[in-house]
Amino acid sequence: MQTQYINEMLNIPELQICQILTMSADEVHIEVTPVAAKQCCPICRSDEFVILKGNNGVRKVRHLSAFEKKVYLLLSAIRMHCSKCEAGFVWDYLCVGPKRRYSHLFRERAAEQALGSTAAHSARMQQAPATTVQQMHNEFVPKECELLTEQAWKQAKESNGLVLGVDDFAIKKGHTYNTGIHDLKGEMMLDLLPGRKLEDLRAYAQHHPDFLLLEPKAVVMDLARAYHTWISECFPNAIRIADHFHVHGYVIEALQEVRKSVQHTLAPRAKARLKANHRLLNPKAESLAPESKKCLGELLSYSLLLQRVWEWKEAFTVWYDYSSSVEVAKLGFERWCKQGEQLDHDEVRSTLKTMRNWQEEIINYHHCRWTNATVEGRHNRIKAYQRRHYFMRNREHYKAGILVECNRNRLH
To answer: For the Transposase IS204/IS1001/IS1096/IS1165 zinc-finger domain, which residue ranges apply (predicted)?
Structure first.
């Protein structure tokens, strides 16, 4: 292989290949030298009076693997002297930091591989010690988080028609929660704050004036009263939208409660079949496979009440998907509520009460058709991250890791 092609493969333009010293089954040792003849003095920033004074031996630096072999670069520690400043210094290589044994490209690759998996996995891929890769990852994440956060906030402030998404996720379910703030239109997570209570949210807004400078057109969130109170205080002109996923969950929950009450009245075989296939009641009928549709029809034939409640659930899905305007949505919502009142069931009545209490926020979806679907997807990433980094004690490292994990698509 010609040395110019090796130069391109190494992707280090400041260096040129002298020779390949050794090549074994696992390793390649390549002697390299700087392309430039001299380097500027770190004091006067000029190379006019710089002279070479020999070298202090050779540095062995690990670089990116090639052809399934570990690549080591042998760099001369070149000594130089500036006769103007009377300063002595050693050649500063851009591809590797001072006193480092791994090149910048190697460190970045190892850290990026550890983002979606673990440091141990990246260490196996790069054939390096796991503790070394973990250290690289811990150095890489805060720097990358700072760049991504700056980019996300700049994009949000300049956005025309900004749409925010606010939702919480559990650190320890039932005990500790975090709240994420997302730019839905810009497809980035803006920030992460501890807690989900109203006092936690107000404290965040008080200590982060940049948040109050945003001008969102709409904010999507679930039906937690604390979120709606907080957003109405921070952004009184923003449209508050009740998230489609959470609202639909109330209707499905009512359907399943009706299914449980009906289930006890059935014969043993029908009871067992309804219980085993109860999840078929949740999705839209048109999304089911032919065999599943056939099974669903059999389940609905067991009870007239169950069939009517299922039709009521389907009508709600149709209302969400096909209301062409806010005025049409208001009429359709009222018609759907009357359909539910005719069912005369406690669970349905309870759900209708919730729906009427949040009628404005639910209908607002038809002003601005945004949902927190991408936020729920990020929550899956966060849960996987938390399992990989269980019991991480440093809050700043934890926050930086999550922000990088959720904004990985914007990594350079």
So the answer is: 39-85
pTM: 0.80
Return the DSSP state at 80: E
Q: Looking at residue 110, what is its pLDDT?
A: 87
CA distance 354 to 339: 15
The encoded tokens of residue 85 equal 């400043």
**Whether 239 contacts 367, CB under 8 Å:** yes
Q: Which ranges of 90-129 does DSSP label H, i.e. alpha helix?
A: 104-115, 119-126
Q: What SS3 string covers 211-279? A: HHCCCCCEEEECCCHHHHHHHHHHCCCCEEEECHHHHHHHHHHHHHHHHHHHHCCCCHHHHHHHHHCHH
The sign of the dihedral angle between the CA atoms of 248, 251, 257, 259 is: negative
pLDDT digits (tens, 9 = 90+) for 115-136: 877 788 888 888 888 888 888 8
Answer whether 353's CB lies under 8 Å from 341's CB.
no
**Among 332, 350, 330, which residue's Cα sits nearest to residue 341?**
350
Residue 241: name the closest of 379, 54, 368 by CA.
368
DSSP bridge partners of 70: 27
Question: In this structure, what DSSP letter does residue 186 have?
Answer: T
- Closest CA relative to residue 128, chosen from 114, 117, 116, 142: 114
How would you label 248-287 residue by residue, b for 16+ Cβ within 10 Å and e otherwise?
bebbbebbbbbbeebbeebeeebeebbeeeeebbeeebee
CB 62 within 8 A of CB 68: no
Instruction: Give the separation between CA 48 and CA 307, rounded to whole angstroms.
Output: 89
Q: Are 333 and 319 in contact (CB under 8 A)?
A: yes
For tokens 């709240």, what's the residue?
179
Q: How confident is the model at residue 372 (pLDDT cuts 50, 70, 90)?
A: very high
Chain mean pLDDT for the chain: 89
Please determine, for residue 228, whether its predicted confidence score (pLDDT) is greater than 60: yes
Which carries the bigger pLDDT value, residue 219 or residue 5? 219
Neighbours of 81 (CB within 10 A): 16
